[in-house]
Design goal:
The chain has about 375 residues and is an alpha/beta fold. It has helices at about 5-10, 20-30, 30-35, 40-45, 50-60, 60-75, 90, 125-140, 155-165, 185-195, 215-225, 240-245, 265-270, 280-295, 325-335, 340-350, 355-365; strands at about 75-80, 100-105, 115-120, 145, 170, 195-200, 225-230, 250-255, 275, 370, 375-379. Helix content is about 45%, strand content about 10%. Strands 1-2-6-5-4-3-7-8-9 form a nine-stranded mixed sheet, with helices on both faces. Helix 12 (about 240-245) links the parallel strand 7 and strand 8 (about 250-255).
Length: about 375
């Protein structure tokens, strides 16, 4: 079997964290070795719970054959974390997808210059106009526009880019063969015919659900060096994309909105919290391009997929080290009994508030914790 088949089998186990599976693959040296491992080895590695071990022990590959057939019908590629087509910027986030389903140009994913444009689905004429202009301006500078495909700001920015001869990556929160958002067929076709691509981490046939939007949003932020929020209400999902961009140390910009508009609350709050302000779209795009040219380019080695390592001697669990995944699991463990505030988590863990807050943002973006109305975090 090919690597992609083993990875599909692993992904179908249902673990949301691509980071955990990538660590397991590195520990066992390859996905095939996980497939061939017995219960003792799976238990001793310390990376899987009882339910996951039961799944791995069955070695049932029936889903894989059917999924590959569905991909072929949809003319969809499978791009895994170790593929040359996998976006380098996405490898840098804490919870990268193990596998991407891609329809259109895989080569578009290899482009280093991407800008995410996001905002309200219920955008007004001002939001549509600004989003279209932003998509056009950055596309004219050679940036690939990343869109969440939603009606309103996201789709307007995408069309602005396409109409200016640019490339768009559309990130879905459903399976590739699911008609969501409704009425997006024309935009999908335009993205593909103009040299772009549609991508998703969800299996074929997966319907869009509210819990999947934040997973999509982390990919949107992870692909780009800059995220631009055009319009966003107080509880807009675009604010999750903004949180992710900040957590990933990517640039974040926002468009000022009229203070009497409900769609201004979220975006104006981003500006108050330090987001870059777009007063002049063309000038901002020019300045951003100039900033990138003036940056000293470091060797790109850290963006390469990690070499698959041999198992550590003595069968010590990878989780004994202080990996990023371990740190996140530590914080999650404190929330199993009851929701806690960041300060309570800091006290329990002995970690700084800065570390706790940044880790909570990453966990929230990846859907592993929830911010409750009272300011506490829960599972």
């Amino acid at each position: 079997m090919h690597r992609a088949e083993y990875l599909l089998w692993l992904k179908h186990m249902g673990i949301a964290s691509g980071g955990k599976l990538i660590e397991a693959i590195e520990y066992f040296s390859s996905p095939e070795e996980i497939y061939n491992a017995d219960k003792e080895a799976l238990t001793e590695c310390g990376m899987f719970n009882e339910k996951e071990i039961a799944y791995l022990e069955k070695k049932d590959m029936s889903f894989v054959a059917g999924e590959i057939e569905r991909c072929n019908r949809e003319r969809c590629y499978l791009v895994d974390y170790y593929s040359k087509f996998y976006p380098k910027a996405l490898r840098e986030i804490p919870e990268p997808p193990l596998m991407l389903y891609v329809k259109g140009s895989r080569e578009a994913l290899m482009k280093a210059d991407m800008v995410t444009v996001a905002g309200s689905r219920s955008s007004d004429a001002y939001g549509v106009s600004v989003a279209t202009s932003i998509g056009s301006a950055f596309a004219s500078k050679g940036e690939v526009i990343v869109s969440g495909m939603a009606h309103g700001v996201d789709s307007s920015a995408a069309m602005g880019a396409i109409n200016s001869g640019g490339t768009v990556i559309g990130v879905l929160c459903s399976g590739m063969d699911v008609d969501y958002p409704k009425g997006s067929e024309h935009l999908r076709e335009k993205i593909i015919s103009s040299g772009g691509a549609l991508i998703t981490e969800f299996e074929m046939g997966t319907p869009a659900q509210s819990g999947y939007f934040h997973l999509r949003n982390r990919i949107m932020a992870g692909l780009s060096g800059l995220t631009v929020i055009v319009q966003a209400g107080e509880k807009s999902g675009a604010l999750i994309t903004a949180k992710a961009a900040k957590a990933y140390s990517r640039r974040l910009a926002a468009v000022p909105n009229p203070i009497d508009s409900a769609m201004s609350i979220g975006v104006n709050s981003l500006i108050a919290d330090g987001a870059e302000v777009i007063y002049d779209i063309d000038k901002f795009a020019d300045d951003y391009a100039d900033d990138k040219k003036s940056e000293v380019k470091e060797p790109d080695t850290k963006k390469e997929p990690p070499a698959v390592k041999a198992k550590p001697s003595g069968k010590k669990a990878v989780s004994e080290g202080n990996t990023e995944s371990d740190n996140m699991m530590e914080l999650i463990s404190y929330l199993k009994d009851e929701p806690l505030t960041p300060s309570e988590l800091s006290e329990k863990s002995g970690r700084s508030m800065k570390w706790v807050n940044s880790t909570l943002i990453i966990l929230e973006v990846s859907g592993r914790v929830k911010l409750l109305p009272d300011g506490r975090y829960g599972l």
